[in-house]
Write a structure and sequence with these properties.
Elements lengths: L4 H9 L17 E2 L5 E5 L4 H6 L6 H12 L8 E4 L13 H19 L3 E5 L1 H10 L10 H4 L4 E3 L2 E6 L3 H4 L5 H14 L10 H7 L5 H8 L11
Parallel strand pairs: 2-3, 2-4, 4-6
Antiparallel strand pairs: 1-3, 5-6
Helix pairs in contact: 1-4, 3-8
Length: about 230
C-alpha cells in the first residue's frame, strides 16, 4: 500500500498499466486536503485537464465551483479525484478493466489516505463501479436517475451519488436541478439536531436498531427520517 499522497502522484504520472497511457498527455492526480470529510470522485480527466495535468479546470470545473459555493464550500475544504487518471480517447466510455486497474493501483489508496466521511460519486460509470465494489445493488442507465441525491451506507462507508457537473455543460440538466442534490450535502455533514432526545439512539444502545440506520439517518440524511419530522 502507498502511504502518502506524494508517492501516489509519482506513480500516477508514471503509470503504464493500461492502454490509456498511450493516448494521454498527462495523468491527473487527485487534489485537496487530507484527511477530508468529502471526497468527490469523477470519471476521468477531460481534454483541458489532460492538457494541463490539473483537476476540474475545464468548463465542468466552473460549474463544480458554483455548486460547491452554493453550499458554502470551496476546493480547499474537500478532496477531489478521478476514478481514471487518464483521458479517455474521443471521450469514449470507460472499460471495466481500466477502472479496476486505476482503483486497485490508486483510488483504493486515496480512499485509505483521505478517510472521507462521505464519498461523492459523480456520474453514472463511477457510481456503478463503486456500487459494485461495495456490494450495493448495481443501477442500470434507467435506474440511475433515482439514485442521484440519495445516501447509501455500506461496509462502513457513506456513498452519495450526484450528477456530474458536465451534464450542465452538455445541457442534459439545468444547474438548478443539480443544486437541490448538492444542498443535501450540508444536511449530511451535520448530525441531527434532535439526537439528544430522539428514540432511535436509545433503541440503538439497547441493541434493537442496527448501526446502519444510525449512520443512514442520525448522522446522515436526517431530513428524511420519520422521527425528525
Amino acid at each position: 500500500m502507498i502511504t502518502n499522497h506524494t508517492d501516489i502522484c509519482i506513480q500516477i504520472r508514471n503509470c503504464k498499466s493500461c492502454r490509456l497511457e498511450k493516448s494521454r498527455n498527462n495523468a491527473v492526480c487527485g487534489e485537496g486536503i487530507i484527511p477530508a470529510k468529502l471526497m468527490f470522485i469523477a470519471q476521468a480527466p477531460g481534454r483541458t485537464e489532460d492538457k494541463n495535468g490539473k483537476m476540474f479546470i475545464g468548463p465542468s470545473g466552473k460549474i463544480f465551483d458554483q455548486l460547491l459555493y452554493s453550499i458554502g464550500l470551496n476546493r480547499n475544504g474537500i478532496y477531489q479525484t478521478n476514478l481514471l487518471k487518464c483521458f479517455l480517447p474521443k471521450c469514449r466510455k470507460p472499460r471495466h478493466d481500466e477502472m479496476y486497474i486505476c482503483y486497485t493501483h490508486f483510488l483504493k489508496n486515496e480512499i485509505e489516505l483521505v478517510k472521507p466521511e462521505i464519498i461523492v460519486t459523480l456520474g453514472f460509470h463511477v457510481t456503478r463501479f463503486l456500487f459494485e465494489l461495495y456490494e450495493l445493488p448495481i443501477p442500470n442507465k434507467y435506474e440511475i436517475k433515482s439514485i442521484f441525491g440519495q445516501l447509501y451506507y455500506t461496509k462502513n462507508k457513506k456513498i452519495f451519488p450526484l450528477k456530474h457537473p458536465a451534464t450542465v455543460v452538455h445541457n442534459s440538466y439545468s444547474i438548478e436541478s443539480l443544486l437541490k442534490d448538492y444542498k443535501k450535502l450540508k444536511v449530511l455533514l451535520t448530525p441531527c439536531s434532535k439526537l439528544e432526545y430522539c428514540e432511535i439512539p436509545i433503541q440503538y444502545k439497547k441493541g434493537l436498531i442496527p448501526k446502519d440506520q444510525i449512520e443512514q439517518y442520525c448522522y446522515g440524511d436526517w431530513e428524511s427520517c420519520t422521527y425528525f419530522r
